[in-house]
Automatic annotation (TrEMBL):
Protein name stated in the entry: TMED4 protein
A single Gene Ontology CC term: endoplasmic reticulum membrane
Compartment(s): Endoplasmic reticulum membrane; Membrane
PROSITE patterns the record matches: GOLD
Signal peptide (UniProt feature, chain positions): none
Length: 144
């Protein structure tokens, strides 16, 4: 089940809708079929086609120009502003991803360092124990 339903629609065998989110962030798309599971196993097909558009590609500029009565130059300026805004959003997202990747890399590097230190200590302790054990063994056998 979806955590918060923003839009809910019911269609017949086919349907189409457009939804524009006004809040940024992660969105989930939940699809439910009202057909029974037995109908699907009996040879029925369920075909879903999703065409998701994100960013300035979702704007219908001819419709915007007609609605706001914009000239060609004003429309091009609006398109450029939308593209610049989309580029800024993409850059911010890439900065965020780079920061998370750097934090993950530093954490992994620190864990590898501590693991190698622990392995070295175990190896040295095992070597010391083996030398003492062999020394006591050879002394007990009176070979030394």
């Amino acid at each position: 089940p979806c955590p918060q339903v923003v839009l809910s629609r019911q269609y017949g065998s086919e349907g189409r809708f457009t939804f524009t989110s006004h809040t940024p962030g992660e969105h989930q798309i939940c699809l439910h079929s009202n057909s029974t599971r037995m109908a699907l196993f009996a040879g029925g097909k369920l075909r879903v086609h999703l065409d998701i558009q994100v960013g300035e590609h979702t704007n219908n500029y001819p419709e915007i120009a007609a609605k706001d009565k914009l000239t060609e130059l004003q429309l091009r300026a609006r398109q450029l502003l939308d593209q610049v805004e989309q580029i800024q959003k993409e850059q911010n997202y890439q900065r965020y991803r780079e920061e998370r990747f750097r934090m993950t890399s530093e954490s992994t590097n620190q864990r590898v360092l501590w693991w190698s230190i622990a392995q070295t200590i175990i190896l040295i302790l095992t070597g010391i124990w083996q030398m003492r054990h062999l020394k006591s063994f050879f002394e007990a056998k009176k070979l030394v």
